[in-house]
C-alpha cells in the first residue's frame, strides 16, 4: 500500500502480508521402477502347480492413481510355465509336468509392469529361474545285450569287456551310475564304477553263459535298468 504524507511532500510506504497457498496437481510423469535389475529364484523340476518361485516388486514416486502398479506379464522362452499375479508380483508354477530341468535348466525371462493400474508408464526387469534337478530319469544301457568272447587262455576276453549306461539327469548324485552283477557267477567280477567285466580265474565252462547286469544311479529314490 502506498500513501502520501500531508503537507510535507513526504511519502510513506506501508506493507501487509497474506498467506498464499499453491496446490500442485500431480501428473503421471514418473515411470515405475523395479527394486532390482534382476530377480532370481529356483524351484524343483515338476513342482506342484501353485508353488511359489519368487516375488517381483516395483515402486512409483507419483501419487495415486498414477502410482498404482500392475504387473502385466512374463515374457521369454518358458514363460508359459509360470503365472504372474498382477497385484502382488508373486510368480508361481502353472505347468508341472513340462517343468523339466533336462530341457530348461535355466530360464531367462522378463517381467513387465505399468502404473495407473496397468494403463500408464511401463517398466521391465529381468527374471532368472533355475530348475533344480530331481532324480526322475533311470540309467539306460547303450545296448540291451552285450557279447564278449574269451581268449584261448580262458582267463581274459578278446577285447575289454565294458557295459555302459548313461543317466540324463543333469546333476550328481542323480546322474552318477553304478553297476551290479545280478546273476551269481564265481568266475566273473563286475567293476561297480567303470562297468568293466573281468574273469577272476580260468574259465572252465564250455557252454554259452548269460548273466544279467544292472545299472543304478545314486539319487533318491534310486532308479535302475537291466541288460544281459
From TrEMBL:
Q: Which residues cross the membrane?
A: none
Q: Which Gene Ontology cellular component terms are annotated?
A: plasma membrane
GO BP of this protein? anatomical structure morphogenesis; epithelium development; homophilic cell adhesion via plasma membrane adhesion molecules
Species whose genome carries this gene:
Dendroctonus ponderosae (Mountain pine beetle)
Alphabetized SMART domains for the sequence: CA (SM00112)
Where in this chain does the record put each Cadherin domain? 35-141
Principal location: membrane
Q: Which GO terms describe its molecular function?
A: calcium ion binding
Pfam families found in the cross-reference section: Cadherin (PF00028)
Q: Where in the cell is it found?
A: Membrane
Q: How does it sit in the membrane?
A: Single-pass membrane protein
Q: Which PROSITE patterns does the entry mention?
A: CADHERIN_1, CADHERIN_2
Which keywords accompany this UniProt record? Calcium, Glycoprotein, Membrane, Repeat, Transmembrane, Transmembrane helix
Name the record gives this protein:
Cadherin domain-containing protein
